[in-house]
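Write out the 3D structure for:
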Amino acid sequence: MDKPKVFIDGREGTTGLQLWERLSRRTDLELLRIGEARRKDPAERKKYLNAADLVFICLPDAAAWEAVGLIENGHTRIIDASTAHRTASGWVYGFPELYKDPERIIGQARRVANPGRHATSIYSDANGMSASWPRQPPCPPSIFCSGTAPSPASPSLATPAEAER
């Protein structure tokens, strides 16, 4: 039997690199990889997206929408790590605790949207609270702050004195 073919579109980013590192240890999968020179070529991406049994999309939202539009077959399963498809029709929200039968709903879905860190935390709090209520007091509200840390190599984030160096 052939090994399932897996393609990570956006393998060069943080999420894609972490997925590649973990999946490359598995001997039961065939990882597909576009050469560096052609990784942004739409025709080449389309070929790989349609050759895969499972695609992980690790791209910004606009590129994620584009990638899904390049898939023309009915067999490729997609897991989108962006925010692009989280509320899109035809996509399953990839948070198993929301479903009575997650193995069937998520496990058989053709298109799964990753819920992301903030939503996962909120739903985890709410799910835990509803399971124990009214025996325990409700959890405190969740507040999130998110952003990026400035890079010393990034001139746009450097102080004026650093930028002049």
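The first strand starts at residue 5 and ends at 9.
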